[in-house]
Amino acid sequence: MFRVGHLVNYKHYDNDTMAFRDFQALENATYGVTLTVRTAGFIREAKVYGKLGGDPNDTVHDFRTVLSWEDFDITGYEGNETFTAFIVLPVGKVNNGSGQYTLGLLIEECLSQTCKYSADIVRIGCRYWDTEDNAWKGDGCKVSSKTSRKETICLCDHLTAFAADIVRVPTRDPSYSRSRQVVLHDDSMVCLEE
Q1: 94 and 32 share a domain?
Q2: Which residues of 114-136 are buried (b: 16+ CB within 10 A; e: fewer)?
Q3: Are residues 59 and 18 in the same domain?
Q4: Distance CA 39, CA 80 (A)
Q5: Residue 2 belongs to some domain of the structure
Q6: Both 48 and 92 in a single domain?
Q7: Which structural domain, as residue segments, surrounds residue 136?
Q8: Residue 30 half-sphere exposure, CB side, CA atoms within 13 Å?
Q9: Do 78 and 163 reside in the same domain of the chain?
Q10: Is the same domain home to 172 and 136?
Q11: Where is this protein chiefly located (predicted)?
């Protein structure tokens, strides 16, 4: 569902061991992160930390997850493998605030071997069609933590047509692009490109 972005050299900053990726977080939003790492060696695990308003570390963070090699889709061949995983940052893990949110990525193997990586971020929302207002609304709907790169799972407390709203979070450009909206109605699916 989400394309892999441009891979850059994994490098850590200021004598730290983490690579960082910043984005502007919105209050009460759910985010998905596609982590892709290309390397000549094997990656046993990757640690991902998140913090609102500053750089995370192993003791100060709002979010932490450890991805084992089993959490990655592994493609390529020995000596040139690509590891791809998807992480959901639920509303509560982004600290219910807005502002600069920083992800810290720690891959021990990338400290001693050449790695390229990308951390592509999307904001994911679930909406339903309000027939009285003729508008998409989000109250009563949330994104499931079981959402993956291949499907968005919406949890809504009512039965109406609903959709997943997916917006790519920019890396540098302040303008954003709408990636895809999927509308479900009467057991059918329509994909709308904007």
Answers
A1: yes
A2: ebebbbbbbbbbbbbbeeeeeeb
A3: yes
A4: 6
A5: no
A6: yes
A7: 122-192
A8: 23
A9: no
A10: yes
A11: membrane
Residue 163 lies in a domain: yes
Is residue 3 a part of any domain in this protein? no
Task: Give CA angle at 119 (83, 156), nearest 5°.
Answer: 100
| 16 and 106 belong to one structural domain | yes
pLDDT at residue 168, rounded to an integer: 87
Kindly state the tokens that stand for 49. Answer: 């930390």
Provide the pLDDT confidence category of residue 172 given band limits of 50, 70 and 90: very low
Looking at the fold, whether 12 and 55 belong to one and the same domain comes out as yes
Half-sphere exposure of 26 (CA within 13 A, CB side): 11
Domain CATH number, residue 80: 2.60.120
Which residues are bridge partners to 99 per DSSP?
25
Distances in Å between the Cα of 164 and the Cα atoms of 24, 39, 65, 194 are 20, 33, 24, 14
Could you tell me if 2 and 33 are in contact, meaning their C-beta atoms sit under 8 angstroms apart?
no
Of the chain, the percentage scoring pLDDT greater than 90 comes to 26
pLDDT tens for 5-45 read: 677 777 765 556 788 888 988 888 889 999 999 998 889 99
What pTM, to 2 d.p., does this model score? Answer: 0.78
Tokens of 33: 């992160």
Let me know: does 74 contact 81? Beta carbons within 8 Å.
yes
The closest alpha carbon to 104, from 12, 9, 2, 174, belongs to: 12
| Same structural domain, 132 and 104 | no
